[in-house]
Design goal:
Length: about 325
């Protein structure tokens, strides 16, 4: 989908991206992590030509990105940023319709798309489409910004710290929305963040940068279970890697046999859902002071049980993506 081959970029003689190679696959949810000044935002902006690379090649859909007109690239790649950038004197409807209008979609199609996206992002169309940005909360404005980025049905959605200015509750809600959009539409998403927990909860692959180079690339489970070096281990936190690993696994993946008569300590409180993370299950084990919990599915049907010792099981091996450096 997007491929960078030996790409470098400097500003005022300072190299920000250094001979970096990376492939973003169709349908992937890639999260780019790194400390301040590591080159995260520059890397993202080179993908849609907001910043031109100095050397190497950037390919989109198999073609050199410089062969596209910049406006064509940006219509095919939605772009959402922390500052949102809504047009203040345009209604929500007109803001979302920006790209479809440029593409000269019929009016009925534009109206249907605006309504669809507002509904998808849990904003009632009849209530919100006629409002203006100043009439919205920060979280609602961010939702509209995401809707605008998605409006032209782009092949790729690029997001640069999109939730950084939001309160924790609103941020968590929007993270769930983006995860749902990715799963429902198999949308290719590249997100830059400094939030490690956000990266672990959303990414199908994490790319960790340091001084413009890739230090490690892999699934969250691969990186946490086998960090490439001390920098990776320190970045993700030596003291709580185990807890983070529990957050990546589901109760339903660690079920014991579907026994109907569980010991007394399994009934101390309500059964837990199979979709809970092992991290959430650990909190329940500790708060109830039990060693076994009954597990149900979303319909409330008994599925089996999980024991406290199941949370200590091994995790899978770590590997790098074969086409990424270093």
């Amino acid at each position: 989908m997007i491929e960078l081959q030996g790409v470098s970029k400097s500003f005022d003689g300072v190299k920000v991206i250094d001979d970096l190679s990376l492939n973003v696959a169709q349908g992937e949810f890639m999260v780019i992590l790194g400390s301040s000044g590591s080159g995260k935002s520059t890397l993202l902006k080179m993908m849609n030509r907001l910043v031109d690379h100095d050397s190497g090649r950037v390919l989109f859909a198999g073609k050199e990105i410089r062969s596209f007109r910049p406006e064509d690239i940006r219509r095919r790649m939605g772009y959402a940023i922390q500052s949102i950038g809504l047009f203040p004197h345009w209604s929500v409807k007109k803001n979302i319709a920006t790209v479809p209008a440029l593409l000269k979609w019929p009016k009925a199609r534009i109206e249907a798309r605006v309504s669809e996206l507002l509904t998808l992002l849990q904003l009632e169309p009849e209530t919100y489409q006629a409002r203006y940005p100043h009439q919205l909360s920060g979280g609602q404005q961010q939702r509209v910004g995401v809707a605008r980025a998605l409006a032209g049905n782009p092949e790729v959605l690029l997001m640069d710290e999109p939730f950084g200015a939001l309160d924790p509750v609103t941020r968590a809600a929007l993270q769930l929305e983006i995860a749902r959009i990715h799963k429902a539409f198999n949308k290719t998403i590249v997100l830059v963040t400094h939030d490690i927990d956000e990266a672990l909860s959303l990414a199908t692959r994490i790319v960790l940068l340091d001084q413009g180079r890739i230090v490690q690339s892999g699934t969250p489970l691969q990186i946490l279970s086998a960090p490439a070096n001390d920098f990776v281990l320190d970045f993700f936190g030596r003291g709580d890697v185990g807890i983070k690993l529990l957050g990546l696994q589901r109760v339903g993946d660690h079920l014991r046999a579907n026994v109907q008569d569980l010991p007394d300590d399994a009934g101390s409180g309500e059964a837990i859902l199979a979709t809970l993370s092992l991290r959430e299950a650990l909190s329940i084990f500790v708060s109830r002071r039990v060693s076994r919990l009954s597990v149900i599915d979303s319909q409330g049907q008994h599925m089996g049980s999980i024991e406290l010792q199941d949370l200590l099981g091994p995790t899978g091996p770590a590997t790098r993506h074969p086409r990424d450096n270093p």
